[in-house]
Amino acid sequence: MKIILLVSRILLLIVAIFSYFWGNRDKYKSYKKSSYLESIGYIFFIIGTLAGIASVMLDVTRHCELIFTLSITIGFLLIYIYLLQEKGVLIKKLSYDSLTKIYTRDKALKILQNMKKHNSKENCNLSIMFLDLDQFKLYNDMFGHLQGDLILYEVAKYLKYHCRKNDIIARYGGDEFIIILPNTSSDEALKIKHRLQNNITNYNWPHDIDLSLSIGISAYPDDSVDIEKLLQLADKRMYLDKQKIN
Question: For the GGDEF domain, which residue ranges apply (predicted)?
Fold first, then answer.
């Protein structure tokens, strides 16, 4: 029994040390610092396992077992808190576009699905806007991709400034954006569309370029109750709007 207990605690120590170095292997390659919370958690964990080994080998059970139990418990708690923080960081990375700092396409579609469920119960409406930057490829080719990225970032800032607080703004892909307008009819969405298109010429853009937006709108439930059809319709109307502008 004593041998089994000793072997199990030695294995626990090996697993703790291996887990720490394996989990941080990428940080060592890129010279990034490990989380203090994670490091302290593993230190407590290792101290606890060493105390557990000592209690078996030296027969000083009372004090070492207490250190073993407390250290392992504290270590587990600290590592668990660290993992929760890392999970939060990962969720944030998956939810926000790294360039524009607004929602990603996937996050926006999840929000849209939840809104649809809520609106069907409450008998509310909502509108969807598809937006595309006109002649963006020309600007990208003229000033380079870094400046093109800067324009996309500024467009996201512009949209956040001119939209309402509860509107959901996301980068759909490339130079396309989507705005979900809760509790908004198609007529109200049309007013917002005109405001976005009219004010964009007064914005202070890099290199003093002239930007314009093509925007398509679809409304729930007037146009459809199916999310996919609403997105397709807004996309189609956006391209029709682009043809008018060009």
Answer: 124-246
